[in-house]
Design goal:
It is a single chain. It contains 4 helices and 2 strands, in the order αααββα. The protein has 106 residues and is mostly helical. α2 crosses α3 (43-60). It is globular and about 50 Å long.
Length: 106
């Protein structure tokens, strides 16, 4: 039992120190459930997007998310070309819509 508790605590600390990796793994696991992982998936690029979101969040003091441009629920793939780093408030506003105007610039 002691080892189980110690391992659980180690995992908890690792997750707290590697939230970008945890988020990337969680998204990969969710997308696998609905068969949306592309064969040309580049895990290193995807991990770097989650790390960038974390870094920008810390630098600006505003929460940033990695967003699926075309949501998984609408047929989008968990692929580096379908991901973008955006402010969390925009991601929550977008929800599972394909709304390119939210991100359009003039």
């Amino acid at each position: 039992k002691h080892n189980v508790d110690r391992d659980r605590e180690k995992r908890k600390i690792w997750k707290q120190n590697n939230m970008d990796r945890v988020a990337a793994m969680s998204a990969k696991r969710r997308s696998a459930k609905i068969n949306s992982i592309s064969s040309s998936l580049d895990s290193d690029v995807i991990l770097s997007l989650y790390a960038s979101a974390k870094r920008v969040s810390v630098c600006l003091g505003i929460k940033f998310h990695v967003d699926h441009v075309i949501p998984l629920s609408k047929g989008g793939k968990h692929h580096q070309n379908n991901l973008q780093v955006i402010p969390g408030v925009l991601n929550l506003k977008k929800h599972n819509k394909i709304d390119f105007q939210v991100f359009a610039t003039n």
